[in-house]
Design a protein that fits this description.
Blueprint: H1 5-8, H2 12-27, H3 33-36, H4 41-55, H5 66-72, H6 78-94, H7 99-110, H8 113-116
Helix pairs in contact: 2-4, 2-6, 6-7
The structure holds protoporphyrin IX containing FE (HEM).
The site of protoporphyrin IX containing FE has 21 residues, from α3, α4, α5 and α6.
């Protein structure tokens, strides 16, 4: 059996630090910061890590059906989704994941686009 992306890079602790770097980048975007002003960031980092753990072949820790509800009130346009996805990709490159694994993760994230954006 192929090793999951989750296990390949060291599991939860490593993923958690990758996700922390991702939100650092988001918080540095003047365009994105307003979405997160009243959000408990450490709780969000935990939820995002659990989501990625679940979709990257680790233990199931997050019910992806919750994504739609979590984002509905935020009214996120496609351009902000694209910016966030770009920051995730940048984070994964800086964290030295291999290109095919980055492509796979970006594919998985893109597959949730319609749960996140408001059209
Ligand atoms: C790129 C794909 C994205 C993924 C995989 C993702 C994933 C998540 C997850 C797992 C949560 C936690 C939900 C919960 O508490 O159950 C969350 C919350 C949140 N996301 Fe996203 N997200 C994405 C894109 C975005 C974008 C584009 C924005 C804004 C531009 C955004 C803004 C937020 C905010 C503000 C919360 C906190 C909501 C709250 O706690 O009330 N997300 N996201």
């Amino acid at each position: 059996m192929n090793e999951s992306i989750y296990d390949k890079y060291g599991g939860y602790t490593v993923l958690h630090s990758v996700v922390s770097l991702f939100y650092k980048k988001i918080m540095n975007s003047e365009n994105l910061i307003h979405y997160f002003e009243n959000v408990d960031l450490s709780r969000l980092i935990d939820h995002q890590t659990k989501f990625l753990t679940t979709v990257l072949g680790g233990p199931i820790m997050y019910d992806s059906k919750l994504l739609k509800k979590a984002h509905a009130a935020l009214k996120i346009p496609i351009k902000d989704f694209t910016e966030v996805a770009g920051l995730l990709q940048e984070t994964l490159v800086e964290s030295k994941l291999e290109k095919p694994d980055i492509d796979k993760i970006m594919e998985v994230v893109a597959s949730f686009k319609n749960d996140i954006i408001t059209t």
